[in-house]
Amino acid sequence: MPALTNIAGFPILSLITWLPLVGALIIATMLRGDEETVATNARWAALWTSLLVLVLSLVLWVSFDQADPGFQFNESVIWMPEFKVGYKMGVDGISVLFVLLSTLLTPICILSAWDAIKVKVREFMMSFLILETMMVGMFCATDFVLFYMFFEGVLIPMYLIIGIWGGPRRVYAAVKFFLYTLAGSVLMLLALIAMWVQAGTTDIATLMQTAFSPHMQTWLFLAFFASFAVKVPMWPVHTWLPDAHVEAPTAGSVILAGVLLKMGAYGFLRFSVPMLPDASTYFAPFIFSLSVVAVIYTSLVALAQEDMKKLIAYSSVAHMGVVTIGIFTFNVQGISGALFQMLSHGIVASSLFLVVGVVYDRIHTREIARYGGLGDRMPGYALVFMLFMMASVGLPGTAGFIGEFLVIIGSLQVNFWLALLGGMGMILGAAYMLYLYRRIIFGRITHADLRGILDLSTREWVVFAPLIALTLWMGIYPSSFTSYFDATVGAMVQHHTAALAATTKLAGIVH
Prior knowledge:
The protein has helices spanning 12-30, 35-63, 96-112, 121-140, 144-153, 155-165, 170-199, 204-208, 214-231, 240-247, 250-260, 262-275, 277-303, 308-327, 332-363, 374-377, 379-393, 399-412, 416-441, 458-476, 479-510; strands spanning 3-4, 72-80, 85-91.
């Protein structure tokens, strides 16, 4: 029998997850008329659906019990009883804020694409709503099979968004994105099957408490690593990301940077660290090495870019390198910093792609050398750009500072050189972001078409307003966000320490 533990009897997680899919079906079947009418109706239907889902996720956010480290709002329906697989949904302190991030960025993306997407508008809006269902479902799933289906399902609408509405090399970028991310996930499927055979269940909460042998943990960790490292993306499997960002439409880049890059780090936090404590500890130096290379190398590569989107894409790899350092410190400050950095990067990087989209919609080029002197013609744009640029650099008082600061504190407990090299991202980040800002905003206008360029429109201000507010709110009052995952992170660190102690004790007895 179904077991539903929810707000006023409503299965709120299922509503948040499946409502966008219902909206996509309505757009597909019920909108009729000439092409322009269908496009307008599709935009409004998608916007209202995503806003309704956002309101529901705000209800979830307000109702969440911050003191409970376990899964809340649980839903469980027996799906495949012979295999002990169920439709199980639940959120804890780690996933609840990512559900909110997904539901916030979706209406922002739809608004940002309002005038930019002119062909196959109905199909574009449907793709975005289906993508929202997959993203939210992945963060809510507490059964491994269900998680895997949503985790892979994200690829399909994103593949279409890049491949149909992208730039000149869109098909190449879409295929590369799909093949890279799918290749690693096949190994994760093998790991899932191995864990199911060993533990007899696919329930994530049960698997977190299951003790796998150190030898098995090693192979499981490598299988998970193959999947999650590509999604993060970690160096050297990051090469699909700059191509995907450059070719994707602005809304596609926003959701890719805001949510999809968080899937790999979320996988490490949900599976690798709690389920495989011995292997995670063993491979931590390897992860640190790759992460430090990512932070320094991709920051230097960003400095050499001539395309605005490519520069921000490489900066994303560097910022996610800081996240993986924090996760594998196995202390409260490091993991909390990683989570905060994921959330702040989701807001700030998304905003930077929207900033690029504003001038791209007007001039239709992303080449940095093509701009200059925009501060004279677009003072509002210059102000918004400056705020998000400073947040990306990690200026105190903005969202970007808190996460990097906590990760550095956490990594200092592991190794001084790790903290120093990991913190280099802040210095190099200042170099490439200030360089980008100087070349676009300052100087003299040298191209005639920039003299008549218009400042931010009302719709663009509406798009940026919640992102500006969040960037400042997270920087000034971070505890209003960290309080959601403090209990869960504390329990995770405690569980990790206890599992390592048990393994050490067992090894002593065997010896």
